[in-house]
Design a protein that fits this description.
The structure is a homodimer.
Chain A: H1 12-22, E1 26-27, E2 30-31, E3 44-53, E4 57-64, E5 66-71, E6 74-76, E7 81-84, E8 87-96, E9 103-108, E10 118-120, E11 127-128, E12 148-152, E13 156-164, E14 170-173, E15 181-199, H2 208-213, E16 216-219, H3 222-226, E17 233-235, E18 247-255, E19 260-267, E20 275-278, H4 281-296, H5 314-323, H6 331-342, H7 355-372, H8 375-393, H9 424-443, H10 447-468, E21 469-470, E22 475-476, H11 489-497, H12 503-514, H13 525-537, H14 541-557, H15 596-604, E23 607-611, E24 617-621, H16 625-628, E25 631-637, E26 642-649, E27 652-657, E28 662-666, E29 669-673, E30 679-682
Parallel strand pairs in A: 24-28
Antiparallel strand pairs in A: 1-2, 3-8, 3-10, 4-7, 4-9, 5-6, 5-8, 10-11, 12-19, 13-14, 13-15, 15-18, 15-19, 16-17, 16-18, 20-25, 21-22, 23-24, 25-26, 26-27, 27-30, 28-29
Helix pairs in contact in A: 1-6, 4-14, 5-6, 5-7, 6-7, 7-8, 7-9, 8-9, 9-10, 9-11, 11-12, 11-13, 13-14, 13-15, 14-15
Chain lengths: 683, 683
């Protein structure tokens, strides 16, 4: 029996679940679907394939939707065994479905739904059908994602009293006044994305009258759970199941008497395939908390945060795609996320309405494709990369600078930038996109395209150097239009990242901006990633290490068990969960705060994924043992297919791998790493 | 309390039900969804409106979907009473839904979902929200159409025997052989679109074991119902409801013992507002059968046929839109149909994959808008008319002739045409579209557009005259490419219809083609409509009358109770239901066969809907009393808002109307008809 997948029109599965994901945000009793154009799936699809059959063969088609099968000239219903005659046989499967995307599954010795089927929507040219390793069984419905589940009990249950304070917040009190409410606070070991199940302490279901008055208050923080009025998620249990809807929390407060509480954690089982243990306890803790943070924000897609927004954001996803090879090395979540973000052609809106997120999608596709050498995905997305670039090009001014359209969101970072006229940071990214397009075209053998795109990069780079470089300040300014000559870290970091600055200006930027304490510090982990990545690129491992342990260590010092959307060490503890003018507005488990996984793997362990001149996947290892001390860690390499393990103890460095094309750089020397032969050296 | 509608993104309701409609075809046990690109609805919409409130006011939003309401800066869940403060208040309603289109309903004294709300999909500019007079109650779900129902009992039940004949067909037998099957045939008065309910003769439900073996065979014809193997619809009743799925039939055959059978006819209640009774019994019968045919093919949309395809076809719909004012005068089914057919922008495929059906959509929009003076609809569709014309223009050759793209279906008619190179009939329609575009632009006050479109028409007309006119034959040829100089009725009829032929050539065409028995006759009612319409335009009422009573009368003579998809008087009775190589392939209730309603109303009663120079709706009446004899008939006029009644008996003609702008033409004289003042004349 050959291997069958469920098949659909390419992208439909991703677009369908992306809607479910982006519509899943709930806050204080109302639903908050994402505020951008929703990209729909198709409702009418045909799958086609021609077989050359050596003998008569049987097959059966199952469909989620309605339609029929055509074999040669004859029509057959779904669900019945069909006999195809020997010789050349054209088969088409007609499929329609309104409420979800149409999908088919074909079982047969020879004719089955393996790769090789083409899908058409009757408008665009036929394309290879979409499939996923998660949908391979005939009884599945690919519009229903089957989560893995794990049941957790709280690590503690304590009786607490809460009452309203002067500002109307509900807070814990040790001396309960007349208006105080008592209840039980349940604490889980760490944050989960779970359905809560609540029972009486004797294990019996909650009585229906009890259900109506029982409020289950959840919180990422203890403070949030206890504030019955302002916590994001406050549920009544479902009378049939005894469960609350799935949401992210660590703390649960239930006013009234004690209950028995379980959390049924639901997740997509993406195995953690890296491990990291060094002699530096703080670094180890940062790695572990980042790993848990990243896992909670990685499901069907890379989302921004476990509690909120639970949306798929382009810039956040780019960083997750950079982090992924250093934890999961799972290319399929990259593809699902990228496909969902890009949506359908023609492109009519910016990804998440944000101009820079549209651009970072190009960076993300490229990052994915070179990490896993995923040329199939690159080829399948190339036309959409081109139409995205056309979309951007239509939004440039007469000088060729990208301006966006009125109403577009130029985000860059939660920071004070001068956004008058064409925004500097956007030009850096826009140029970077053309540079990537040149490389992508070249990798696909489209040399004509490559030359055009490289030329666009060169021209834009020259114009940026001319208009945005401020010789006196020795830095790039945010805007040349306003005349304010405002210098920000963000604009200059993107200039470095996108290959704008030459050697000399690169040095000036480092000195005058990156290492200059006069320039306002970055306060989001989002931009901390970009900043530290540049320190790493410059080989400034010392500075990178210091900033990482102080910034992420700072969150740990505040009791973080997952890393936060934003952290400013200057903000007092009493307001540390504030964001967007909301006392519990901050997401305490945010993917873009998990970048230490990348930074540690990439710059301290020193592992880089590369393609050699033959186009083969390989890796370079250049460990910074001075920051790690003793070490035992392992990572996936070569497109996630192979492993490398690095151990350092008692002055002996040992490296073993099953991969070809490994290269160790140690003390300035290049040492090839041979597969299945342990390398040893005294340090 | 002001009047509330359910609101949605404009077009979503139509596109959603169009999918349901186009996916509803079932044949002999399998589903057959329409084979063209399906145009989807939106999944994420926002409705916005700003009120200037004189005082605080309450309202409540109900949503089919998920989301929330924003009043000023504050968010509220659906279903709760919200208080809006006095002053200027911006309200936005955020709504998401995957399985159907999002819709909202707003109840309140001042703030309610009447007209005035704008809808946005976050990509295109905001547009006035969609609504329908069918969805005005808060408990409705606009994704569920509530059909009207009427229960019918069969007019006869007879015991019959059937057996297989030599060719494998199952036919009635008077002398049952050993393999014969007996059962009961139930005949209804006429064709219905109904769910059958089957009970035992004592009124009890069918036993579950009985259900499993009981086959309910339906047929438009007696022959079809009796052929258990080849009838289109053969059901098992649902064990819970005792009912079969909704389908079209007149006859029901149930092998085995006698049963009690009811038909629950489901329909959209579009009132028949015209009546017609003349001294000509055959004409009256044609009118009545056409009216029943048309009603069965008019539901949420104009569909082609009641039994099959049940799809929405552009060319068919155009004729239905021409017929509509002479029976229902219901502009809203026009709009639903036109909106559904056109789909979304950008346009990527031809309507129903047929190039001429794309063009006829322009004719149909125009026909609708001038009949009902529906400038609001014209304005709302104008951009889509333009993008459709751009789509066509992209498919022209270097001479400017329309060619379509490879794979596009150039239909014209079920007839033998020379389709080599640019097809003549297509050029006529294409030119006709530019002519209409000129008039539409002018009506909307877009004079620049109008001039451009008129110029396009002129140039194309000139080129057509040059390339397609054959001076020797005195007719237009199908193709100039092939050199075969083939002359068809179809090409020449479209040349007349689209204003290509000048006075002289028009006469030649009439003589050499239309009235020339050497040119193969039209065999579809589809093209008979176009042909007879030209006879009518030429004032050849006699010829029109003769052809109509012979063609449609011919179907009546064969026992038709509804008019057929195709009728060729030369085909023997034994093969009269054949089509597409299928013994019961022909649809016996087809909208395009209902055109006698139009032809009688337009040319025998002589009623034309017009706009006067002030842009007001009016009508002209020019009755052909010689064909009608005594007469009592009534029609809607002036956009369906007013009525005209015409009576003729004992030599006295009496005409009464409540409309302004009526004009009678009698014996060559123009006589204004005054509202609410009966006109009388001796004839």
């Amino acid at each position: 029996m050959t291997k069958s997948y469920w098949l659909w029109y390419p992208g439909d599965m991703e677009l369908y679940f992306a809607m479910k994901q982006n519509f899943s945000r709930v806050e204080r009793g109302f639903s908050w679907p994402a505020f951008w154009k929703s990209e729909g799936f198709r409702n009418r699809v045909v799958f086609r394939r021609t077989y050359l059959l050596e003998e008569e063969t049987e097959f059966r088609v199952t469909c989620r939707g309605q339609g029929h099968v055509v074999v040669g000239e004859d029509k057959y219903p779904f669900g019945k065994v069909i006999t195809a005659p020997r010789g050349e046989v054209g088969i088409s499967i007609h499929c329609a479905r309104i409420e979800a995307f149409p999908a088919v599954y074909i079982e047969g010795e020879t004719i089955c739904s393996d790769r090789g089927w083409m899908a058409s929507d009757y408008a665009a040219p036929a394309r290879p059908a979409g499939f996923s390793e998660y949908f391979t069984d005939p009884w599945q419905d690919p519009s229903v994602w089957e989560y893995s589940e794990k049941v957790y009990s709280p690590v503690s249950a304590e009786k607490v009293f809460v009452e309203k304070d002067d500002r109307g917040n509900v807070v814990e009190t040790r001396a309960p006044g007349p208006g105080a409410v008592s209840g039980y606070l349940y604490t889980f070991e760490t944050e989960l994305t779970a359905m809560l199940e609540v029972l009486n302490t004797d294990g019996t279901p909650i009585d229906i009258l009890d259900v109506k008055t029982m409020q289950v208050c959840c919180g990422e923080s203890r403070e949030e759970a206890l504030d019955m009025l302002h916590c994001y998620y406050s549920w009544q249990v479902d009378t049939e199941t005894g469960r609350c809807p799935r949401c992210a929390f660590r703390y649960v407060f239930i006013p009234g008497r004690a209950r028995e509480v379980y959390a049924i954690h639901q997740y997509v089982d993406i195995p953690v395939r890296a491990f990291f243990k060094s002699g530096d306890g703080l670094l180890n803790r940062i790695w572990e908390v980042a790993a848990h943070t990243f896992s909670l924000c990685s499901g069907i897609f890379f989302i921004d945060g476990a509690k909120r927004d639970k949306w798929i954001w382009g810039g956040d996803a780019y960083q997750s795609i950079c982090i992924n090879p250093y934890l999961f090395a799972d290319p399929s979540i990259d593809r699902r996320t990228l496909t969902a973000l890009r949506g359908n052609d023609p492109m009519t809106t910016h990804i998440n309405t944000i101009t820079d997120y549209t651009m970072l999608w190009i960076f993300a596709v490229w990052q994915h494709c070179i990490t896993y050498h995923d040329l199939e995905y690159l080829a399948s997305m190339y036309a959409k990369m081109q139409s995205l670039m056309d979309f951007l090009k239509d939004q440039t001014d007469e000088k060729g600078f990208f301006t966006g359209r009125s109403g577009d969101w130029i985000y860059v970072d939660w920071a004070d930038l001068d956004k008058e006229g064409p925004v500097g940071a956007e030009q850096m990214l826009y140029a970077g996109c053309w540079k990537i397009m040149g490389k992508a075209a070249s990798l696909l053998g489209r040399e004509g395209d490559a030359a055009l795109y490289e030329e666009r990069f060169s021209i834009l780079k020259k114009d940026i150097e001319e208009m945005y470089w401020d010789g006196e300040k020795g830095a790039y300014v945010d805007s040349f239009t306003s005349g304010r000559r405002h210098v920000s870290r963000q604009t200059n970091i993107f200039a470095l990242r996108c290959g704008i600055a030459g050697e000399d200006r690169r040095k000036q930027v480092l000195e005058n901006v990156i290492l200059n304490p006069q320039i306002p510090a970055v306060t989001t982990p989002y931009f901390a990633f970009y900043e530290l990545d540049e320190l790493g690129q410059e080989g400034m491992t010392e500075a990178l290490y210091d900033r990482m342990v102080s910034y992420w260590g700072g969150m740990l010092a505040r009791g973080a068990v997952t890393f936060w959307e934003e952290f400013d060490p200057m903000v007092p503890v009493s307001r540390q969960y504030d964001m967007y003018g909301d006392r519990f507005g901050k997401s305490l488990c945010h993917a873009w705060a998990a970048s230490p996984l990348y930074l540690i793997g990439r710059y301290l362990v020193g592992l880089t994924h590369v393609l050699n001149e033959k186009g083969e996947t390989g890796f370079v290892l250049s460990p910074s043992l001075e920051h790690l001390g003793t070490l035992d860690c392992g990572f996936q390499v070569c497109g996630g297919e192979k492993t490398v393990r690095i151990r350092h103890r008692n002055g002996i460095l040992r490296i073993s791998t099953d991969a070809e094309n490994g290269l160790l750089i140690l003390g300035g020397k290049e040492i090839p790493l041979l597969p299945n032969r342990e390398f040893q050296a005294e340090i």
